[in-house]
Design brief:
Rossmann fold, 16 strands, 14 helices, binds L-homoserine, about 35% helix, ten-stranded mixed beta sheet, about 425 residues, Alpha-Beta Plaits
Length: about 425
Amino acid sequence: MTDPLRLGIAGLGTVGAGVVKIVQRKANLLAMRSGRPVVITAVSARTRDKDRGVRLGEYAWEDDPVVLARRDDVDLFVELMGGSDGPAKAATEAAIAAGKDVVTANKAMLAIHGQDLAATAEAAGVALRFEAAVAGGIPVIKSLTEGLSGNEITRVMGVMNGTCNYILTRMQSAGLSYDAVFREAHELGYLEADPTLDVGGIDAGHKLALLSAIAFGTEVDFAGVQLEGIERIASADIEQAADMGFRIKLLGVAQMTGRGLEQRMSPCLVPADSPLGQLEGGTNMVVLEGDAVGQIVLRGAGAGEGPTASAVMSDVMDIARGIRVSTFGQPAGSLTRPTPAGTATPAPYYLRMALQDKPGALAKVATALGEAGVSIDRMRQYQHSHETTAPVLIVTHKTTREALDKALAGIAGTGVADGRPVAIRIEAV
Ligand code: HSE
């Protein structure tokens, strides 16, 4: 056997503790598979005196992750602290400068600084890998960079925030409001410390930007992701979407179009009987489409100790085996700067509105849609014994978002709709 691969782990939360457990409990398996022992030499975290359910006494302790990253007895720096800047970025940069390989689970840091960090790592001749940053235990980075490396990727889609999928599916199964399920998710500890990262689509948007870079050979462009969260989804949307054969998902879609790189993370309707439509609870799903392979669907746990530690170990084991793959699947200098598509590819839309229940109201809505060039595919008015407004649902034919916005402005101008209609894109999956 050759020299051990010596890990320095910064961040001993759920994922860090999970990695320590695998290294300790699977030592023989890891050594047999990689041909060398994989060991931990030093660790770092904010609090030292805390029971994490793992033995840490045998490792050197550093209060400062930057000092840990520079230690002579660390070959591979494992960054599991999180946060786009601050100690995570400082320690990652210190590790690269000291000639150490880096494995990180930090989607925010890579979505914002990934291009610079990848270029710096390449210039220093070290690896920077991030399997655990996207869709937890699903080996999606490896699938894209290695398994599908002979394909031109045509589209990447995914439900990549388990908390949002939990909220949306629980609203449906229990018939609860968004606020009630949000509180429940909070009590269960599912939400990030800043819940906007989850429900605002930011966490999933970071993940989509990372996948786009690999899929389309472009620099990471998180600012180019059109983001919309799930905060405005009402029980009525969930129920009526189901009634029309759809499910609502916080869906990420990335594709290269003639107008540029389209990256969207937003609530979408998908057919209830599609793999994405059937995805329940906190699970993630990533759909990859390549010109040679067609469509593949990857499904699994997007968070949690075991699944995320499993993904971290995938990168650790590649490095232990001497497998070197560029951070984004090709040299950082060869990634091109994407032009954001600006507008979304045309699609059908679901519209829900409360119409004043008086003669001619529906005709005015139909006229506003027609004048904007938006054609109606299906329409339903629900029973409404007590209200003065009637709940109306319309599914349009394929249209541009611009035409739809013109129609929505036209509907607002008629004065027959209470409030702004809800409009949700229907994605062909
Ligand atoms: N908060 C994320 C989720 C997990 O709910 O999927 C970490 O990215």
